Amino acid sequence: MSRFKTDVKIDVFTDYHIRQMLLYYRSLRQRDKTFYAYRDSTIIGHLLGTGIRVGELANLRWHDVDFEHDTITVFGKKRIMGNLTYDTPSKAGIC
């Protein structure tokens, strides 16, 4: 076992990939108009708009969301509380 940490390259989405995901889920939502289509579109929008992890999104409760100030309180790694400003991908200029 090595004592030193090695750098790990993390692949990230490009703007093109993000646009493709958003267009796919938007068209799916408009075509199907089902609960699952709206749910999936909302989940992808939140993940891309805030940068939170899937586990952090799954642990959100209604009292964690402040609609007046557009902030979300999340518990990240090591149970550290942080506030995120919610910005939809279209507001951020991605879409």
Task: Describe the overall structure.
The structure is a single chain. This protein has 95 residues and is α+β, with helices and mostly antiparallel strands. It is globular, with a radius of gyration of 16 Å. A hairpin with a 5-residue loop joins strand 2 (71-75) and strand 3. It has one domain (15-85). It has a 3-stranded antiparallel β-sheet, with no helix packed on it. Helix 1 (15-32) runs antiparallel to helix 2. The protein has 3 helices and 3 strands, in the order αααβββ.
Keywords summarizing the entry:
single chain, 95 residues, alpha+beta, three-stranded antiparallel sheet, 3 strands, 13% strand, globular
Q: Which range does the strand content fall in? A: 5-15%
| General shape | globular
How many runs of DSSP E, i.e. beta strands?
Answer: 3
Give the count of helical stretches: 3
Task: Summarize the structure in short.
With 95 residues, the protein is of the alpha+beta class. The protein has helices spanning 15-32, 35-50, 54-58; strands spanning 65-66, 71-75, 81-85.
